[in-house]
């Protein structure tokens, strides 16, 4: 976890599942606007072993 460069992390648990991830922002300046794109991996795991992952 960091402020410069910006890196965020999260962790959540509930009955039968766990969720965690980390992400940073990729930025592009277009002259009159800015584009911010999240980059990282998010993971959702269920107690039965099934896992879903999202990445950018």
TrEMBL record:
Domain of life where this protein originates: Eukaryota
GO MF terms, alphabetically ordered: sterol binding
GO cellular component terms attached to this protein's record: cytosol; membrane
Ranges in a coiled coil: none
Transmembrane region(s): none
InterPro entries per record: OSBP_sf, Oxysterol-bd
Name of the protein in question: Uncharacterized protein
Native source organism of the sequence: Nymphaea colorata
Lineage: Eukaryota, Viridiplantae, Streptophyta, Embryophyta, Tracheophyta
């Amino acid at each position: 976890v960091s402020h410069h460069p910006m890196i965020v992390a999260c962790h959540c648990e509930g009955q039968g599942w766990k969720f965690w991830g980390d992400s940073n922002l990729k930025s592009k300046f277009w002259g009159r606007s800015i584009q911010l794109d999240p980059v990282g991996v998010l993971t959702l795991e269920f107690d039965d072993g099934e896992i879903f992952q999202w990445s950018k």
